Amino acid sequence: MEISIAATKTCPHRPILENELKHARLPFKVIYFDEHPELLEKYQLKHSPLLIVDEQVESIGMPGMEKIEELKTRNVDLSQIRIPKRDNNHMIPNRVKAEPGLVEVDTTWGSIQPMQVAHGVLTVEELKVHYHQKMNLPIIDARKPDTNDAISIAGSKNIPFDEVVKRIDEIDKNHPSIFFCNGPQCPQSSTAIKNLLKAGYPADKILYYRGGMHDWITLGLPVEEISV
């Protein structure tokens, strides 16, 4: 969870909010409107301070203590209560031989990703991905080759997350592109999206399929082999 205080340098409430977050042991950063006027346009708000969590405005002006307590609850590191990582883990559900429709899922790898990857980027589901397939609209597989197990969603184009900015001209700017990776535990597509946004790519031309290969396979949907 990424917490930010957006405020003017002269805002009298900013130091108070900083102290409250420190007392609650919540990590945060301070962003000044004076140095980042684009924030006013991004959030369409001129109030100070703003409490922003994962790029969403959670409080306008000083938040109440109930909001601070809620953030403390949400800030719990889920990795602390997850099953420990296996030595030989696999990112993609494995089909069980001779058992159609049955797959083996490894739940121990990766880190849980937020449902919304960035402000202005819509999270989509399998029906939207299937629509893009039928209409031959862009679907981007943001995984590095050593993490894809040589399979992908049919109709997708592989542009690894660490190459997406330098290969930005390969992305169809006329239609929104769906980005995916190995699923809710995988940060590759969310990283690709954030890198594109930093490079100035419009958020309304990006769609995030958080379910990725994990949800696609566990729902019994077909995949295609990748030529290597």
Give the arrangement of secondary structure elements.
Layout: E1 3-7, H1 14-23, E2 29-32, H2 38-43, E3 50-53, E4 56-60, H3 65-74, E5 94-95, E6 103-104, E7 122-123, H4 126-134, E8 139-141, E9 151-152, E10 157-158, E11 177-180, H5 188-198, E12 206-208, H6 212-218, E13 224-225
Parallel strand pairs: 1-2, 7-12, 8-10, 8-11, 11-12
Antiparallel strand pairs: 1-3, 3-4, 5-6, 9-13
Explain what you see.
This protein has 6 helices and 13 strands. It is α/β, with parallel strands linked by helices and 228 residues long. The protein has 2 domains: 3-75, 3-Layer(aba) Sandwich (Glutaredoxin), CATH 3.40.30; 83-225, Oxidized Rhodanese, domain 1 (3-Layer(aba) Sandwich), CATH 3.40.250.10. The strands form 4 sheets. A 5-stranded parallel β-sheet has the order 7-12-11-8-10, sandwiched between helices. Strands 2-1-3-4 form a 4-stranded mixed β-sheet, covered by helices on one side. Strand 3 (50-53) and strand 4 form a beta hairpin. The longest helix has 11 residues, at 188-198.
